[in-house]
Structures are given as structure tokens and as C-alpha cells.
Predict the structure.
Amino acid sequence: TLKGLVDGTYVITETSAPTGYELASAITVVINDGKIDSVAGASSYDADNFVVTMVDTATTITPSPTPEEPTPTPDEPTPTPDEPTPTPDEPTPTPDEPTPTPTNTPVPTNTPVPTNTPVPTNTPVPTNTPVPTNTPVPTNTPIPTATPTPTVTADLIIKVVTDGNKSPIPDSNVKVIDKTTGNVIKTVTTDKDGLIVINDIPVGEYTIVQTTTIEGYTVDENMYEVKVDSNGNVFVQGVMVNTLEIINETASPTATPTPTQGGSGVTRTGEKTSHRAIIGIVFVVASVLIFGACLIIRRKKNNDIEHV
């Protein structure tokens, strides 16, 4: 049975046959779409049940020829030393006497001798079998090198100006502090145009603080929050801009004490206040003394009237 074979062309040959029979001829079977499509060399086949029949032909027995008896050699066997040497009196056979020839041994007849087993003919090679071509040996494939991941950075512009006409303030120091570690990563100074350009700031969160300014202006004490995200965008106080403006207000003038003219020369305002305080105390003490004296005098007069 040929069930289970995949589509293709197959050659079926018999490798051995029973005694007295010849090998059957090779059979070529073509299976297409899971069915027997064609059969060549078979006596019969059942395509529905995938059965192909091979028939062995009985061989013809011929008697083998009688083998010829071997002719004995003329040389007599040399007697062994143990055999007695014939005496001279014994007659030596003359060479004219015929040598007895053994009779033919009868060969049994009707012994079937197998004929030469026929050699199977060349088995046809199934067609349409693709012969694999030489597979090309791959050349050395270059190992791809690791592409370095670009570092994301951003630039920040800081501008320090006055509160009036927004004039630039040079020589003002500003610190950039890493918000995570608290470390100062940069201390920068404004140029003559009041500008600071900080390049290549890595991704992270920072605090910008002004530390000094020029004379006549006050330092901006605000702490500005700056963030650089993974896309390189800059956020100042939560707004996506890349410029931070720091405004310094004009400093209030320091009050200068006004000198006053006194009898002994120039008296400062502080000294004048002290003198007034002393005069007030003396006045209060004097008033108390006068009031007390008046009470004493009045009581004395009342006493004198009662005695009279």
C-alpha cells in the first residue's frame, strides 16, 4: 500500500524473490494531490486503496552438465619413511601396462540448479527533482557598532535689566543650582549688554539666583525655577521659554541727618532729642516740688488759725 506518501514520482523495486522465481520489474508510480495519478510497469493496481501489484515469474529449471572426473596425476606419492621399502624381488610393473581408470561416479539427476539471478535494470530517476545548487558561503558580516545615544541639552539666556527703562545691568553675578543635589553647577556674570548665555544645560531641574548687582540697584531676591525636559525644551516658572529676565529695582537713597544750630555749636538731631527729654523730666520734677510746697504752706496756715 502507498498510503501516506506525499506528492511526487516514486520507483518501486523488488530486492529479493522466492526460490524458483524471478524478480519482478520495477514499477514507477506518480502521486498527485494525494492520489495515484499514473502507474508504469505494474500488472495491476487499485488507485482508490493505494495498492500496486507486483508479479514474480517462475524460473525454468535446466539440468546442469555432468562434471568431468579429474585425471589422476602420474606422480606416485612418495612413501613415508615408516613404510617398508619393497624388496628387489618384487616385480616392477612395466610401463606398457594400462593404468586403471576409475569409473564415472553417477551424478544425481533432476537436481534443480538455480539460474543466474537477473540483475535489475537501471532504475529510472524520478523527474522534476531539483538539484540543489551550491549555496553561497556568506562573507564576513560586519558587526554593527553601537550608536552612541545623543545627550539632550538646552541653552538658557538670562537678561538682567533695570526696573525703569529696562537698561542692561553689566557685571551682575548669577548662580545656577542643581535642584536635586543643591550643588552650584555654574556662577556666571552678565556682559556689557546685561546678558548671560548658558549653553548645554543637561536635562533636569535648576534654580536661578542673582547674587550681586551694580551700585544703585537692589538684587532680585526671587528664586527662579528652570526645567529642561527630555526633548530639550526649557521651562521658566512653568512657562516654555528659553529666556529669563531679572529686573533690579532702583535702590532707595539713605537718609542723611540734618544738622541744627545750637548755642554751643552744631547739634545733631539725636542730641536735640536727648536734651528735650531732660528738660521735660526737670519740668515734671519742678512741678511736683512746687505743688508739694504749696500743700505744706496751706496746712501751716490752717494750723495757725486753729490756735488763735
